[in-house]
Model the fold of this input.
Amino acid sequence: MRREMIQKLLPFLSLIALFVALAIASPHFLTGVNLSSVVRQTAVINIMALGMTLVIVSGGIDLSVGAILAFSGVVGSMAMVAGDSVWIGIVVGVLCGFAWGALNGFLTVWLKIPPFIVTLGALGIARGVTLIISGGLPVSGLPRELTFLGDGTVFGVPFVLIVLLICAVITHVTLHSTKLGRYTYAIGSNKAAAVYAGIPVGPYTIAVYAISGLLTGLAAMIETSRLMTGQPTAGQSYELQVIAAVVIGGGSLTGGEGSVVGTLIGAFIMGLLSNGSDLLGINPYLQQAIIGAIIILAVALDEARKRKFSAS
Amino acid sequence: MLLELEGIRKNFGGVQALKRGDLRADAGQVHALIGENGAGKSTMMKIIAGMYRRDGGDVRWKGQSVDFQKPGDAHAVGISMVHQESLLAPHLTVAENIYLGRETLRGPLLDKAAMHRASGRLIEENNFPLKAHWKVRELSPAQRQLVEICRALHGASSLIIFDEPTASLSESETVEVFRIVRELRHKGIGILYITHRLVELAEIADEVTVLRDGNTVFHSDFRETSMSEIVHQMVGRKVEHIYERPKLTPGKQVLKVDLPGASFSLHEGEIVGLAGLMGAGRTELCQKLFGVTPSAAGEIEVQGRKLHPKSPREAVHAGIALITEDRQQTGLALELPIRMNITMANLGAVTQLGIVRPAEEKTVSERFRDKLQIRAASVEQNAGRLSGGNQQKVVIAKWLYRDTKIVLFDEPTRGIDVGAKAEVFALMDEMARQGKAILMVSSELPELLQVADRILVMRGGKITAELPRETTQEEIMHHAAVGE
Done:
């Protein structure tokens, strides 16, 4: 029982260990400037990972989040420039993400294709369409006020951190205390049993992907604000980091397991790794390889934990 | 004598699966091994086939004492086993499966042509409706069984063990298996045939051995005994009544079914049994009523209202629950706590303004845990960690909480122990007393006779008889096997 607790707390302990190690290794780590930059860097991945948590708990996967981020960012930027309004741009960007997510969910349910394939296809389509409508060039000329979303502070607290915390609380409550959340766990744990219990599995599955898309749309506008352009090439391989955050946080790729708190911890581990590598001068190409290795390690540890339980 | 077993013992952990297993099998004879579930039939056969090692007793093969360490040892002397569940590689061809694990080589390479030719010959000699190059995944369950038989025949077997070969087969496929078994017997091969279907005995058995509670209790030439003697030996001390249900007067009609081949009704306070051989269409009937496989024709009426359920959701809303025969596949979310499983079909009742009330949910699930005596320290325990009987009670709790008028039980006692069985029956009785209407599918005839108020019998997708609760196993078997 004690072992079980320790292994469940493993991601949290890793985060603390990483934090302490970096504080010792680099004098630049424990500074307000650096920590707030970690928060800003992590926020985009973190918000996307909240949506991915729902998807993974439902037993699905969404490989298209990086491409959806680029699409939403570019279309949101174009709307912002055309409408000359930050708000119009943000709403359009978020809706774009929502629509892609809903479409992903709908295609999985309607065509009965595994989400891996649907979202892999959507990745290609969204990325291609984004490059076509932008002509491959960044959308510029965004209103100056947009910087506040990504770089502003409220009483010294980064605004993105507030946005992230609000999203996290809402997602947590959704996952743990609403029908939608409960059915997400039920569908991910045993879809047939959910159907036999009279749960409308199709609509709930679509809702899960739509929420993931919506959060990705929001993340897209934060990313746009940080870059101050709508980049058609933004979000490359973000799906890797996002899925890694969920899995490190205890999400199971076979569904039925995962939590918002775990995902936040997972995303911050990823953020610290990347920040630490920068501070310590580790090759950014190597960082990507490290992330990949950590995903495998996290899943291997989790599998070992589960096997131990079923054996006992 | 080809094979002799004397006083075989086998324990699994603390459980004595086999206490005293005796058997004598001759060449050119079909020796039927019969007994209820858990009597020790499969254990004994797996010891013969070298899959388990015995804890005691003696096995003699052609007069010599033998001790097989692994399946290969048994196969080497000419013993093979046709398994109940197909152990084939679906993406490989028939020929590749026949030779799986004993491939013919030519130097370092597979001699595919030779294996293909030899498989073709084997199939032809036996007149099997197969082709060597067919992929196994495209075959029907019966054809897969034939591939298993080919595997057994390959390498000159003198004894073949069939472990309930017809369990998943249709009527005509079963007839085909009988034909093949008879042909093998004609060639002088000894056959051990495990079954718990009495009706199959008359078709093929030369000799019969009955196992009960891990002991060989009876052996006879089939022509010198009777069905009732065999049933008596199987069940032992006159059908043990683990639960006795008093007779109730049924109330008003709540379900009226008028589907092709299946017309019947259920009343308040009534438990109706549904008997039949495997593949008779009992599960399919439940699935039609529950909207899993919507019925194209016919009519269903629930409490006077017409219903054409196209999904379980519609059926549940109309007041029908289905407790499926496979709780792991379709009954439970194994990674989720008992609490969430219990409220899953009625989450709205503990939800207020869209938020699930944790305190109420806990109270509800603990109430059901206590009421159904689900043995778990806490309702937060994962359903996957419970025993079969307790898992079944969680599924029942889920539907009790949903409180549907009609409850369909498909094999409610499969894989649960005797104590839990009695508890499940008591729950069913209580549900009936509360005015629910219950349909109970079961292959365990003694249980149907104890619990049901009347018994419907299905055969070949049709209801062929309706019998009163005073009927007998023989009567049910008669209608199940040869109903008009």
Q: What stands out?
A: Chain A touches chain B through 24 residues (CB under 8 Å).
